[in-house]
Design brief:
seven-stranded mixed beta sheet; nine-stranded mixed beta sheet; 20 strands; 19 helices; UDP-N-acetylmuramoyl-L-alanine:D-glutamate ligase; single chain; 36% helix; 21% strand; alpha/beta; Udp-n-acetylmuramoylalanyl-d-glutamate--2,6- Diaminopimelate Ligase, Chain: A, domain 1; globular
């Protein structure tokens, strides 16, 4: 957004005195048309010329960091609390509402065709792949997407203000749901021509009364869709599939696995899935039915079924825009995975898999199924798990972490490291220990389990195992707030220093 465009938007109630802002920025008419404005809400990321927005929060109040933003070069702060700040401020009654109204006005002004994607798992990957596929058939400068996982009632409006411009004709939006009402708010601000519901699992279940309440809120993206618009639904879940029947005046496209023939030309279906080795190289082979056409795809990496469903969803979305005969010629080589989504790296003759962008029970199960399959085809002899708590589970926490223990035991890892900075994951250890007697009788090799709240203590055990293993996988998974990256950084530091001897271990361990 450029200066003159922002000034034009400031016609909302309470923001009529545009002359003051024009004097503050004081650009000439010629330069005003070229000044790019950037909004930020983290003073640590503020740069020269930014507009800093102070959002009050439960744990952090952005008003406490206004002066830090000015020191970093911000030219203006938008605040809802009057304090003796060291710079120019625009006072509004509610900074959150101000940003949402401004973004909604900008959206309405540009009027792009919006594609909204939500679900408990796979939102970011599906969004990225929709963008990647559309860019193969449409001019890339016409396709906007919100970067990373900026999908909240604050993050998404800021992305719209900072990134959406007059060249964009399509906007691919990842829409998150952390509390009741979030999706209704986002879809009201940014009306959609295509609404996508990927799945409904246990992620964020602690913020809702029960699963039915969570499902009701997730399905708002479909219920609020406009008559005549497109909706894309996961066809293997009866409750989600039923939403299509409840919206007879929408164009419904399903995605899923082995979908019924009755779906015919309105589905993208996975017909076969296989991972294998070609020599020593990994490969994932897929057979997909894309509407009326069947295609086979081969990827030079191992993709778990979650990724495959994301691909089916992305193709289903694109099928509402791109003719099928053209769409099936898309290049899978141009698909990119977001950072820390089952990201595989080689290290000291072993493999590290970073999957700690966030966590849920369902996403962990999908990953473990792939690790088991990688072991079955003899790509690896063993794998190790480095896990942290699944957060925002509320009263369901013990149940979910017990189910995680059951999945671990059935997956048969060589060792499990539990990073217990947030203690919910210790319920997984307790559940594994309760199953110890039966587990030992059924398994030749007991699972070694370590736990600690100290990232360096966990890292020491991992670094030692790395030093005595070959071609093993070390898989990292936890909710974002657990900050598993501190364990990863400690592992790298210990390996660089060569400090990973058994005598250094200060962690509790047991065999299960």
């Amino acid at each position: 957004m450029i200066f003159t465009e922002w000034i034009e938007l400031l016609s909302a109630p309470g923001l009529r005195n545009k002359a003051i802002l024009e004097q503050l920025f004081n650009p000439s008419e010629e330069t005003a048309r070229g000044i790019e404005l950037r909004f930020c809400h983290d003073s640590r990321e503020a740069r020269a010329g930014d507009i800093y927005i102070a959002f009050p929060g439960e744990r952090v109040d952005g008003h406490d960091y206004v002066d830090e933003a000015f020191l970093a070069g911000a030219r203006l702060a938008i605040v809802s609390e009057i304090r003796p700040y060291n710079g120019h401020c625009l006072y509004v009654e509610d900074t959150r509402r101000f940003v949402q109204e401004l973004a909604a006005r900008w959206w309405k002004t540009l009027n792009p065709k919006g594609i909204g994607i939500t679900g408990s798992n796979g939102k970011t990957t599906t969004k990225e792949w929709v963008k990647d596929i559309l860019n193969q058939f449409l001019p890339p400068e016409t396709v906007f997407f919100n970067p990373g996982n900026q999908n909240t009632e604050i993050g998404l409006p800021l992305c719209i203000l900072n990134g959406l411009n007059r060249r964009h004709r399509w906007a691919v939006l990842e829409m998150g749901l952390a509390k009741p009402g979030d999706l209704s708010t986002l879809t009201a601000m940014f009306p959609l021509v295509c609404s996508v519901l990927l799945n409904v699992g246990s992620a964020h279940i602690g913020n809702f009364e029960d699963f039915e309440g969570l499902f009701r809120e997730k399905s708002e993206i479909i219920r609020t869709s406009a008559p005549g618009s497109s909706i894309v639904l996961y066809g293997n879940a009866p409750s989600i599939r039923a939403l299509g029947s409840a919206c007879p005046d929408r164009q419904v496209t399903y995605f899923g696995e082995s979908l019924p023939d009755a779906d015919g030309d309105r589905s993208v279906s996975l017909e076969s899935y296989r991972i294998d080795l070609r020599g020593e190289r990994p490969v994932t082979e897929l057979k997909l039915k894309v509407l009326t056409r069947t295609i086979t795809l081969s990827f030079p990496v191992f993709l778990h079924r979650g990724f495959v469903m994301d691909l089916c969803a992305a193709l289903a979305v694109c099928s509402t825009i791109i003719d099928t005969d053209r769409l099936i010629d898309f290049s899978p080589d141009l698909l990119t995975l977001p950072k820390d989504r089952f990201e595989i790296r080689s290290l000291r003759g072993n493999w590290m898999i970073f999957d700690h962008y966030n966590a849920s029970y369902e996403s962990l199960c999908t990953a473990l199924d792939l690790l088991v399959e990688m072991k079955r085809i003899r790509f690896i002899p063993h794998f190790h798990l480095v896990l942290g708590s699944v957060l925002e589970t509320g009263r369901h926490s013990n149940e979910i972490h017990t189910r995680i223990a059951e999945k671990i035991l059935s997956s048969d890892p060589l060792s499990v490291y539990l990073f217990s900075r947030e203690s919910s994951i210790l319920e997984t250890q307790r559940a594994m220990e309760r199953a110890r007697d039966g587990r030992q009788a059924a398994s030749r090799i007991p699972i070694t389990c370590f736990s600690s709240s100290d990232p360096e203590a966990i890292a020491k055990g991992i670094a030692h195992d790395l030093s005595v293993s070959h071609n093993h996988i070390f898989y990292f998974k936890a909710s974002r707030m657990v900050r598993m990256e501190e364990v990863v950084e400690s592992v790298m530091d210990l390996l660089d220093r060569g400090n990973h001897h058994n005598s250094d271990l200060q962690i509790q361990h047991s065999s299960i």
